Amino acid sequence: MTEQNQTKSNKNEQFDVAIIGGGINGAVAAAALSAAGQKVLLVDKGDFASFTSQESSSLVWGGIKYLQTYEFLLVFKLCLARNRLMRAYPNQIKQIGFLASLGDNAPFGRVLGTFGTLFYWAIGLFGTKPPASYSAKQAKQLEPSLITGRKAVEYFDAELPDNDSRFVYDFIRHALRLGADVRNYTELVGAELAENWTLELRSGKKKSRVSAKSVINATGPYAKQVSKLLDAPTDAGLVFSKGIHLTLNRKLTSGYQVLALWDEEGRLFYVLPMGDRSMIGTTDTRVDDPETQVSDADREFVLRQINNQLELEDPITADQIVSERCGVRPLVVEGGQSGDVADWHQLSRKHVVEANKDRRVVTILGGKLTDCLNVGEEIVDEIQGFGHKVKKPTNWFGEGSQERREEFYQLVRSKASDNAAEIADGLWRRHGDKAFEMLGDTLTDLIPGLGVTEEEIRYIVANEQVHTREDLLRRRLPVSMARSESELAENQQLQQLLVELGL
After folding, report:
1. Domains of the chain: which residue ranges?
2. Residue 3: in which H helix or E strand, if any?
3. Which residues make Cβ contacts (< 8 Å) with residue 262, sequence separation at least 6?
4. What is the pairing mode between strands 197-203 and 187-193?
5. In angstroms, rounded to a whole number, what is the distance separating the alpha carbons of residues 277 and 159?
6. Strands 321-333 and 351-356, how do they pair?
7. Max Cα separation, the chain?
8. CATH number of 3-53+165-235+349-385: 3.30.70.260, 3.40.50.1580, 3.90.1150.10, 3.50.50.60?
9. 20 to 30 A Cα–Cα from 7, which one of 119, 286, 320, 369?
10. How far is CA 116 from CA 67, 74, 107, 347, 413, in A?
């Protein structure tokens, strides 16, 4: 049975738990609660992970910068969460080196940097490769684009090669497999609590009603508005920090690594791999509205930082930007509302889960992708506290068996005339052993350099609740962030396929 057919067969109108919001927090809640024996509905007014959860740096990290604010317990918890994810997702999450160039803007030098990275490695229970320290000459040899004369330290965290939104969809798939009813492009427009919740939903022009014993508010930056709709106010408030990234039509690093730099305001700034290209960012700007756009000032700031912090033969200019991402970080203000915060830059990415037992509403505020498994398990505990009969959730995340991986790679090598490694890596990483269903007589990289085939696109459109081109190319696949609109428009084979598929 395909996942699309599972979605249809899971349709119901009475649920134990309704989850509002299909970003990372809603997706993990749906998977964990379904595994705990609950009848779950998940809805999102857009596509899954189409807002905050598609705008991150696609990193899985322990929060090394929080060592500067002495939040050791938070770093310890995030490192353990990172290690757990790395074990569960050996293909979707890749360990990667962060080469930190210690220029004038860095808050420390080589000695303190070496100590800090060693402490970070230790507080993470040695879950990654050990850190390293480099003289200016060694750093330049390791990465020629670094500024001559700057020493460097290296530490290790992890990244998502296929984008944050693809990772979110993995939890959606687990929830579907476990019996959840999952609906994108479905908005909550009304709610009333009597014996149970009656929720009014709107999908396009069609309205419907469902009932649920409890409701999870996992709407990220919109959590306060939805809590108001549910008449379940929260004690904590939110502050929004705007962050942007720019993907370039060139690769800035000599190897597969992240460059960690400090911008002119003393904040961390990265050069990140984006397929066969590089992504640069991010900014950290206080905003009041979660609906944000990349401004000219944002672009100028990011380009100025990268040109100032690297030695490049050709400076980076705006015409080299392939794509942009822009979102807000919802930062938690405990015991307060979304208002003035004197030192909001010091707010961490920790999450807060608030349970309103009288209204049977759980609200998730803040958080980051790295801590997602803990969020899922906390939600199960809160629902149990509402009187739901739950069991310990098992088999609700992870990639599963890797026994047939080598067999799959051999088959790809026999069918692909070129780029076999990229095709095999991408298919297995995104689909696991279901990738066997995407093996045609021959395999061709439809978008050279990204390892995406026609067979994979057909499978995703048929099985992964794709409604628009953006669903497919931006969130199910890492395509539109690594290729410009003009490059995709010039790919006639891709365009013909999309038209054939009704996109």
Report:
1. 3-53+165-235+349-385, 64-158+239-332, 405-500
2. helix 3-9
3. 103, 105, 106, 107, 268, 269, 309
4. antiparallel
5. 15
6. unpaired
7. 70
8. 3.50.50.60
9. 369
10. 8, 16, 11, 20, 44
Name, in order, each residue with C-beta under 8 angstroms of 239's C-beta and a sequence gap of 6 or more: 286, 330, 331, 333, 338, 341, 344, 347
Sign of the CA dihedral running 470, 474, 477, 480: positive
- β-bridge pairing 351-356 and 361-366: antiparallel
What is the pLDDT, as a whole number, of residue 394? 95
Q: How far is 258 from 279, CA to CA, in rounded Å?
A: 10
CA atoms within 13 A on the CB side of 141: 5
**What is the phi/psi pair of residue 398, to 5°?**
100, 165
Residue type, 40: V
Q: What is the pLDDT of residue 344?
A: 55
Query: What is the per-residue pLDDT across 213-256, written as a single tens digit (0 to 9) for each?
Result: 999 999 999 999 999 999 999 999 899 999 999 999 999 998 89
What does the block give as tokens for 363?
């609200």
Report the alpha-carbon distance of residue 288 to residue 298 in Å, rounded.
16
Whether 270 contacts 281, CB under 8 Å: yes
Residue found under tokens 């919802």: 330
Residues of the chain predicted below pLDDT 50: 1-9
User: By C-alpha distance, which of 404, 380, 384 is closest to 394?
Assistant: 380
The pairing of beta strand 132-134 with beta strand 321-333: unpaired
Distance CA 331, CA 343 (A): 12
With H, G, I as helix, E, B as strand and everything else as coil, classify residue 58: coil
Number of Cβ atoms within 10 Å of the Cβ of 244: 23
How many CA atoms, within 13 angstroms, populate the side-chain half-sphere of residue 192?
Answer: 5
Burial class (CB in 10 A: 0-12, 13-18, 19+), 20: buried
Tell me what pLDDT residue 445 has: 93
Q: Where are the beta strands (DSSP E) in 149-236?
A: 152-159, 181-183, 187-193, 197-203, 206-217
Which two structure tokens, joined as six digits, stand for 423?
């095709």
Model pTM score: 0.94
pLDDT score, position 11: 62
